[in-house]
Amino acid sequence: MVSRDPTSWMRTEYENLVAQSLDWKLRVLQGPSAPRSQVDGKTVIMLCSNNYLNLSNHPKVKRAAREAIKTHGAGSGSVRPIAGNMDLHEELERRIARFKRREAALFFMSGFAGNAGLIPQLAGEGDAVLTDELNHGSIIDGVRLMKAQRIIYRHSDMGDLERALKEADGWAKKILVISDGVFSMDGDIAPVDQIANLSEAFGAMVFIDDAHGEGVLGEGGRGVASHFHVEEKIQVELGTFSKALGVVGGYVAGSNDLRNYALNKSRTWLLSGSHPPAVAAACTAAIDVLETEPRHVKKLWSNTKYFKKQLVSLGFDIGRSATPITPVMLGDSAIAKRFSNRLFEEGVFALPIVFPMVAKDRARIRNIVNAGLKRADLDDALRAYEKIGKELKVIP
Amino acid sequence: MRRIGFVVNPIAGMGGRVGLKGTDGVVEQALAAGAEPVAGDRARAFAEAFLRFSWEDPALDVDWLAGGDRMGEIPLRTAGIPGSRIDVVHKPLPTTTAGDTVHAVENTIARGADLILFCGGDGTARDVASAVQDRVPILGIPAGVKMHSGLFAVSPSAAARLLAAFMRSELRIGAAEILDLDEDAYRKGEWRVRLFATAKTLVEPHLVSAGKLMVEELSEESVRAELTEHFSELFSENPDTLFLLGPGSTLQGIASSLGIEKTLLGVDAVLAGKTLAADVNEAKILELLNRRPKAKLVVSPIGAQGFILGRGNLQVSPAVLRRIGVGNVIVVATPGKLAATPVLRVDTGDPELDQAFVRREYLFVIVGYRTSKLHPIQG
User: Fold this and answer.
1) How confident is the model at residue B21 (pLDDT cuts 50, 70, 90)?
2) What pTM value is reported for the model?
């Protein structure tokens, strides 16, 4: 018999990651994710959560969660296909569909579960799937489970997408085009109108993952399809409640056919326990807030414009973002790391994004602006940026 | 501290100034025509650049295992590297030959070199690779007349940056092809670039997005496993199609994973997952095509310039290509190699055929299991 150490490989792998500085060092939030949060014992201005609208702290959303626990308990007891399908889940899905102006919606455990569970069911042998090279990892994983031929097109390059469509048109039975709505690294928006029009010309189905556009773009935060007025040409919109909507869980919205098909075919949906009542109710309340209190989205954008304008006037390069995701380009990875550490010392929590996540000369700090930040918070953050920028000779 | 081999071919690059494609075997003629050595200056420029990096990063600590005199020691010393860090591994006579290169390389390996830097051209690359036999990675500082091979840095200072990155564990070891002009043929008026060997060299790790703010390295093994699965399926779904597999390490790797015998440098004919004929020449390919007209050609970009046809695979002549059909050419590349290849090129020797490729502007390149990318193509 071979002598085996069943677990030592884990430490070896981990130590490799540490040696390359690719391991995650977890910070701890001691309290809510809020515009000013308690992180590792320090009060900091939060510029790296996805809680764009600060809805995780909204009284209506918190109350809905408490009430649901009182009326429905802490857990759902089962998967949805068997005995875990509560009125709260069905109500939430009706509200998602209404908000998105769609026939129907299906609520998933997470955006990841939506992509990984549904995408593999949307094309198969003899079909083609066309996917942007910078699509999110959950899309990549979903695509890897498909039997369809996969064609990776250059990031937001419509010439390349059109060439790939023409090529696939020659042999594919079905064609599926998948793109993020907003790309989270640079904050750039996909040309969803052109994707929709090109796909329509070839009879291709369009799947848009709008995790970072939901609650941010479009009329009342309805997302990127609404932003470009092409809802009727997008057959599948995937969204999440874990970002702007402040809770957790993913969903797909589209036709009744889509919902019926997805719930019978998506293994991540069929085989996961359903969300606890508090989550479903809080998500419904978050939609309520979006529909009745337009001020949050407006505040997000006025904060974003102010923060970006001030950063530029200080002399920082903020890249090509068109959304509240605001990179501050620093070039060198070592400078970006030092900058981020200094920001934390000065009470600002923003994440450095360094090689190998981005090219060697494209290291940056990624800020995510939040509607809950007050002008004074932003000014404090900007003062820290100015101080450290001068200290590290990034700005004059 | 790392041990780095450093071998300069002092006469590399002398042919270029006087119109000879290379200095192989014609050094006296080059000298008589007024050629001046360039390799020493290139080697020194590399060492100066590396020395500047090492002032800022104490981790860049090197023990140099160098050729003697102009074969390495002099350029290192004139750049300012102290003699105490230079270990001379081979003392050449004033007139150096390929034998000196081979001898110096052998000795650096015997002394435990982690990497060998050489300064020269395609001819030097061949000599170094034949001595190394894949035991350690090699990296070229460009100083030759011809540099078709895929293991040269673009400049001496780029070579210094690559060495620094290697020492900081930012690079991986991958394969590159060594191509060279057949110099005897060239001096008779024929331009013929041949694939001579493959060698280990330094490559950028290929990183893929694994989720928000996360990347993972796509290892050569997992890429090869995916490509192998792809071709395994392709072969079994097309049992009556003749597959002609072109040269290079990518295709050889796929073939060996499938248990198919495949030559590294040749074109091999495969039918139903079995080798029908190995290392076939043009006449043999045409004969096979007579019997099996349903055929596909599988090629991979070769060398530094991204040629898929006309460099290293001249057996695939215009006559062969016309018989197979331009639409039946399958291009395959690892994602890392494709990322380092800005355009694909063809040079079949038949302008009309080249145009048939170039007109398409983009070709599909297989980069993984059932996964492809469009990549631009030029003449």
Assistant:
1) low
2) 0.81
pLDDT grade, residue B16 (50/70/90)? Answer: low
Within an 8 Å CB–CB cutoff, is residue B264 touching chain A?
A: no
Q: Is residue B214 part of a domain?
A: no
Any A CB within 8 A of B372 CB: yes
Classify the C-alpha dihedral B214-B215-B221-B225 as positive or negative: positive
| Residue B184 shares a structural domain with residue B223 | no
CA dihedral A158, A161, A163, A165 (to 10 degrees): -130
Domains and CATH numbers, chain A: 17-46+294-391 (3.90.1150.10), 59-292 (3.40.640.10)
Distance (Å) from the alpha carbon of B372 to chain A's nearest alpha carbon: 5
- Tell me the nearest-neighbour CA distance from B330 into chain A, angstroms: 14
Residues 6+ positions from B75 with CB-CB distance below 8 Å: B8, B40, B43, B44, B46, B47, B119
**Residue A351 CA: distances (Å) to CA of A27, A43, A211, A214:** 11, 16, 19, 22
Contact B372 A356 (CB under 8 A): no
**What is the value of ipTM here, to two decimals?**
0.77
Minimal Cα distance from A155: which residue of B? B373
Whether residue B212 and residue A136 make contact (CB cut-off 8 A), yes or no, is yes
Give a yes or no: residue B352 inside a domain: yes
Distance from the A130 Cα atom to the nearest Cα atom in chain B, whole angstroms: 10
User: Does pLDDT of A230 surpass 80?
Assistant: yes
Q: Name the average pLDDT for chain A.
A: 95
What confidence tens digit (pLDDT) does each residue in B33-84 have?
A: 777 778 899 999 999 999 999 988 888 999 999 999 999 999 999 999 999 9
Interface test with B, best of A15, A23, A151 (most B CBs within 10 A): A151
pLDDT digits (tens, 9 = 90+) for B167-223: 988 888 888 888 777 767 666 666 667 777 888 888 876 665 544 455 566 777 888
As annotated, the active-site residues of A are 184, 212, 243
Closest CA to A207 of A267, A142, A125: A142
Whole-angstrom distance, CA of residue B339 vs CA of residue B306: 11
Residue that wins the pLDDT comparison between A168 and B190: A168
